[in-house]
Design a protein that fits this description.
Number of helices of chain A: 25
Largest sheet of chain A: 6 strands, mixed, barrel
Order of helices and strands of chain B: EEEHEEHEHHHEHEHEE
Shape of chain B: globular
Number of domains of chain B: 1
Oligomer: heterodimer
Number of strands of chain B: 10
Structural class of chain A: alpha+beta
Strand content of chain A: 15-25%
Radius of gyration of chain A: 34 Å
Shape of chain A: elongated
CATH class of chain B: Alpha Beta
Bound molecules: adenosine-5'-triphosphate, magnesium ion
Number of helices of chain B: 7
CATH superfamily of chain B: P-loop containing nucleotide triphosphate hydrolases
Strand order of the largest sheet of chain A: 2-3-8-5-7-6
Strand order of the largest sheet of chain B: 6-7-8-3-9-10
Distance between the termini of chain A: 38 Å
Helix content of chain A: 40-55%
Structural class of chain B: alpha/beta
Number of strands of chain A: 20
Helix content of chain B: 25-40%
Radius of gyration of chain B: 18 Å
């Protein structure tokens, strides 16, 4: 008996689900999308933690790096013997150029380690070929190998500073998690040994110490202090010259992956979006359940009249939701896994690591299950309890009788728009008929729109920032000069080139900021330039620019100011340049460059400080003082400059055309923006689904009115139009909200993304174009989402509609 | 004079109505409305149920025909056949020469919008439109008149049915009688020659019912053809002609 009753309830549940296949599908899909997005992001994070951070820390990452004058392998052992050092590794880095078969050159680093099979720090992994390079041989980093098509057995040509070329045999492929990958640095990493370096004319000895500090400290302060101790107590007393203490990575913490901050920031942003997706699918469940209940009020009344208790009825709807949840989960698990594999593989190829296993993390699985089951139930419970509370009398006699009684305030207001053609008026009125239902759909679409506009605004902000950055590259071509170049010689060569109007020579020096207690702090670059420079367009944030005779005055760039924290005009900085520490006064702060923390001072002053006469470290060339040459002209000039300076023995570097600077910053951002736009797309899909659901419910509820439209002569297109125009109105309402909220949401996203990636404050710029694009997109979403409901409205015949009278 | 001129639903022309009713279809020309051997069988789980059997009914232009009969006798089914709201199982219904059941649902809607005004028992005004917009909407759907003129024509119709004062109110603010007048005005929007109505006074008190009936009478005097289902024997008698059905058959006409 009991069994029978339960099974007849199940029949009803199944019938309800099956009888409204498309509506059920919609709910299942929207649960699936929300849960899948959560699964995708969290599982991708799991991959990144396991396979990037995990693999990274397994290879004993260096806490600090110190460049030291040439030293033997044994020095590393001595350093390792220090109390606060866990491990030390000797390395040799040599900058060279790689010459491709077609004559194109690439920046490359020849790196040597004593024993590749037993690396103490920053362990690299030989993936293919010989376990270690032999004389005249090299292993190549896999990402560059793939990008440049280099394979084992190939012979590559490297060119040295003195223009001599050597052939190296590629003997193996290496995976190095600790070097910036080719995709970011555009530097080809070649691993070789000291003999080979000597064979090409290099001096014997290593020049870099990679040190893992005891306890693997993650704060920069500790790492810098201990590094200084190593240098001052061991290296320098032993007679070596050592540079300043470096912390590997992009403003990273010691011992952490070089992009960890950026990756974490990006994951956080994605997680906020997945929370939005969950919210949206929850709302869709509420809407649908409410609609089902509304539609079944009569049935509920009948069930109650035959003795069902409220909770028994509620339980049936709870089961209904449970089935939706399970269906959504079943779809979401594979979808989320696939998405996470996609996102993970993408990150892996960009950041040069491997996904070891394409599995679904147990934690993530648990999260997905909990969300899929709990969220729909939690949000549907209230409407279920409310809907099943109706009395038999209400359900049977009152429901549906007074449909057109109340008119909301919005509707009464719209009523005044007498000039509207009646069908348009109907659509407009229908839009505002069920405000809670409208509200939800509108919120969904608004979120999608806000995300879209925010993504484009982030791009616009980035462009604005790049626009600001490029002020510091106000040249057509610039080229770095070999040490010891003379300013007069450099300028003479430059002016021999046709069309050169300006050849501004800069000098540079490294400096270390001294802490008040005498210990060494962060590093910065000093730039000596003519005070009346025409190759940067300084934007002063505070203070003043340099004047001739500013002997101990500096203008900082914002990057340095930010690194220093609270710095004000008039403050004194103690900088160690060479072996001498001098005080300097800050007179101005110039806007951000993102070329690292630097400070400007007059050319003559820096020349005096460094004791070089007519120093020249860089020359910046312009062909005209008004405007810049075209991209092609810049490229042509760059080739000419390289050739001339190379022939004159002044430089072996590649010349940098201005337009290269522009594209440099956009790379990693393109990827982030694509991901953001994809997220906006997903939200847009959920919004569209929600709109379809809402419109479907609306059509059902207005069956009778549609019948009347038929009776007074509405053709199929006319009925379709009434429905579709309503969908478009909903879209436009949401767009209106997007225009209201997107300035602030966009600013927040732009700030989050740009600080996460560039570790830099934001110059925000709102994308009005994005707002307009979204209007177009959302109108299309509105129209497409209402097509199916419109079709079902058309299939209603007058007969069905007026039947129940 | 051409009798029962063919109507092409898509042309702007309307069915010409005739003021006289002396000639019957036997004279070699067909009537304005012509039911030929119409049968309607409802297929239900309990078996087939014949709601109309062998209906032959000719109505000439300008006639006022009332349909009476007991509950369940098939009156509503009959009107639904005429308005094209439902389809006959067998037989043909032609109106001004158009075999209306050969039209698609969409074409039927437009044809109906231009040639046939329907007035329902429960008024069926669209709640979100004002009264005058309810009257204008058929013009919109059937592309009748220049858009700028529609408001004036609709106001004129509301004037005729005596509720012009309420033109800009939502229907819910009108009394039942007023709503039915609005519904009649809407039925007249495209100036159709025929009005079909199922119990238009069923929801009205007798005084209001009387007023609505008089409105119909005025329309017939103006040349319209009306088919009206009613339960009210007294009203039925006042129509020009009464058709009585029982068990799906015409027993008196
Ligand atoms: N959709 C349907 N399915 C099955 N039977 C139907 C259907 N519609 C009507 N009937 C039956 O057909 C017969 C005629 O119905 P109809 O509605 O035409 O009667 P009526 O004369 O209009 O009655 P009333 O005066 O009560 O309105 C009735 O017996 C009715 O039960
Ligand atoms: Mg009836």
């Amino acid at each position: 008996m009991e069994r029978l009753r339960i099974s007849s309830q199940w029949v009803k549940i199944i019938n309800d689900i099956w009888g409204h296949k498309s509506r059920s599908m919609l709910v299942v899909l929207s649960i699936a999308v929300g849960v899948a997005v959560v699964g995708m992001i969290n599982n991708a994070r799991y991959y990144i933690e396991r396979d990037l951070y995990g693999a990274f820390s397994q290879g004993t990452p260096a806490s600090i790096q110190i460049y030291v004058s040439y030293f033997p392998e044994s020095l590393a052992d001595e350093v390792e013997g220090l109390r606060y050092v866990a491990a030390a590794q000797a390395r040799r880095d040599e900058s060279v150029e790689l010459v491709a078969a077609d004559g194109k050159t690439f920046d490359a680093v020849l790196s040597a380690a004593p024993d590749y099979s037993e690396m103490r720090v920053n362990q690299i992994e030989v993936e293919e070929g010989a376990p270690a390079p032999s004389l005249r041989g090299a292993l190549v980093e896999r990402q560059a190998a793939e990008a440049l098509g280099i394979d084992i057995g190939d012979v590559v040509v490297v060119r040295l500073q003195d223009n001599k070329t050597y052939e190296l045999h590629i003997q193996g492929i290496v995976h190095d998690l600790y070097a910036l990958p080719y995709s970011i640095s555009s530097e080809v990493m070649l691993y070789t040994n000291l003999e080979t370096i000597q064979w090409i004319g290099g001096r014997a000895g290593y020049n870099r110490l990679d040190v893992l500090l005891e306890g693997n400290p993650h704060d920069r302060e500790t790492a810098l202090t201990q590094g200084t101790l190593i240098r001052d107590r061991l290296l320098e007393p032993a007679g070596y010259r050592a540079g300043s203490i470096l912390i590997p990575g992009i403003q990273a913490n010691p011992g952490e992956h070089w992009a960890q901050n950026q990756v974490q920031g990006f994951i956080l942003i994605l997680q906020i979006m997945s929370a939005m997706a969950i919210f949206l699918s929850g709302g869709l469940v509420v809407n649908t359940i409410t609609a089902i209940l509304n539609q079944q009020v009569k049935q509920i009344g009948i069930m109650r009249s035959v003795g069902a208790e409220r909770l028994q009825i509620a339980r049936m709807y709870v089961f209904n939701v449970l089935i939706f949840s399970l269906g959504g989960l079943a779809l979401a698990l594979p979808l989320g896994l696939l998405g996470s594999i996609g996102l993970g593989e993408f990150a892996a190829s960009f950041l040069n690591f491997d996904l070891t296993l394409h599995n679904l993390a147990p934690d993530v699985l648990a999260i997905e299950i909990v969300i899929a089951l709990a969220v729909p139930m939690a949000v549907a419970l209230w409407p279920i309890l409310k809907g099943t509370a109706i009395s038999v009398y209400q359900a049977i006699y009152q429901y549906g009788q007074i449909q057109d009684a109340g008119m909301g305030r919005v509707q009464r207001l719209l009523f005044r728009l007498k000039f509207l053609p009646p069908p348009v008026m109907m659509s407009l009125q229908n839009t505002f008929r069920n405000l809670p239902r409208l509200g939800f759909t509108v919120i969904t679409l608004t979120m999608a729109g806000a995300t879209f506009v925010a993504a484009l605004s982030t791009r616009a902000s980035l462009n604005a920032m790049v626009g600001d950055l490029i002020r510091y590259a106000a040249y057509d071509v610039a080229i770095s000069l070999s040490g010891g170049a003379n300013r007069l010689a450099v300028q003479r060569e430059a002016f021999r080139l046709e069309g050169v109007e300006v050849a501004e020579v800069w000098t540079r020096a490294g400096a270390v900021l001294m802490n008040p207690n005498g210990s060494e702090g962060e590093q910065l670059a000093l730039i000596g330039l003519p005070v009346d420079t025409v190759t940067i367009d300084v934007k002063l944030l505070e203070g003043r620019w340099l004047v001739e005779g500013d002997a101990r005055n500096l203008v900082l760039n914002e990057d340095l100011a930010q690194l220093l924290g609270d710095i004000e005009i008039g403050d004194t900085l103690r900088l160690k340049i060479g072996d001498t520490t001098r005080p300097f006064t800050v007179v101005g702060i110039a806007s951000r460059h993102l070329s690292g923390p630097s400070a400007y001072l007059p050319y003559a002053e820096l020349a005096k400080i460094t004791g070089r006469s007519y120093p020249a470290d860089e020359v910046r060339i312009r062909t005209s003082l008004d405007g810049f040459a075209s991209q092609e002209e810049q490229d042509a000039l760059a080739v000419a400059v390289e050739e001339r300076f190379s022939n004159a023995g002044l430089s072996d570097s590649a010349a940098r055309p201005r337009h290269n600077r522009l594209s440099f910053f956009s790379g990693p951002f393109q990827i982030i923006l694509v991901v953001l736009v994809i997220m906006a797309g997903l939200l847009g899909i959920v919004g569209g689904l929600s709109l379809t659901g809402t419109m479907g419910i609306n059509v059902l509820e207005r069956t009778r009115e549609i019948g009347v439209l038929r009776a007074v002569g509405a053709t199929n297109p006319a009925i379709r139009q009434v429905v579709v125009v309503e969908g478009i109105f909903v879209a436009i309402v949401s767009w209106g909200l997007v225009t209201l909220i997107s300035p602030s949401t966009s600013a927040a996203l732009a700030a989050a993304v740009i600080t996460a990636v560039l570790r830099s404050d934001v110059v925000f710029s709102f994308s009005f174009a994005g707002l307009l694009y979204w209007l177009g997109i959302v109108v299309i979403i509105g129209a497409v989402a209402s097509l199916a409901p419109a079709r079902s409205a058309v299939t209603l015949t007058v007969r069905e509609v007026l039947d129940y009278e | 004079m051409v009798v029962g001129e063919t109507v092409n639903y898509s042309s702007e022309k309307h069915v010409k109505t005739r003021a006289t009713s002396e000639s019957k279809s036997t004279n070699g020309h067909s009537a304005l409305i012509d039911f030929r051997d119409v049968e309607k069988i409802y297929r239900t789980e309990a078996g087939d149920f014949p709601a109309l059997r062998g209906i032959n009914l000719q109505i000439e232009g300008g006639e006022f025909v009332s349909v009476i009969g007991k509950s369940g006798s098939g009156k509503t089914t009959l009107v639904n056949m005429l308005t094209g709201i439902d389809h006959p199982t067998k037989g043909e219904i032609s109106i001004a020469g158009v075999n209306i059941h050969e039209l698609t649902e969409s074409n039927m809607a437009r044809w109906r919008g231009r040639n046939l005004g329907v007035v329902f028992q429960f008024f069926q005004l669209l709640p979100t439109l004002s009264v005058v917009q309810n009257v204008m909407i058929p013009m919109d759907f059937c592309n009748m008149y220049v858009p700028a003129e529609r408001m004036g024509i609709a106001m004129n119709l509301l004037e005729q049915v005596g509720i012009a004062d309420h033109a800009h109110k939502p229907p819910s603010r009108l009394s039942g009688g007023q709503q039915q007048r609005a519904a009649i005005a809407r039925a007249l929007a495209n100036d159709p020659p025929i009005i079909a109505t199922d119990e238009p006074t069923g929801n009205l008190d007798s005084k209001t019912a009387n007023q609505v009936f008089e409105l119909f009478q005025k329309l017939v005097d103006g040349g319209k053809t009306i088919l009206m289902v009613t339960h009210d024997e007294d009203l039925a008698k006042r129509a020009g002609r009464t058709v009585e059905i029982a068990d799906g058959e015409i027993i008196r006409q």
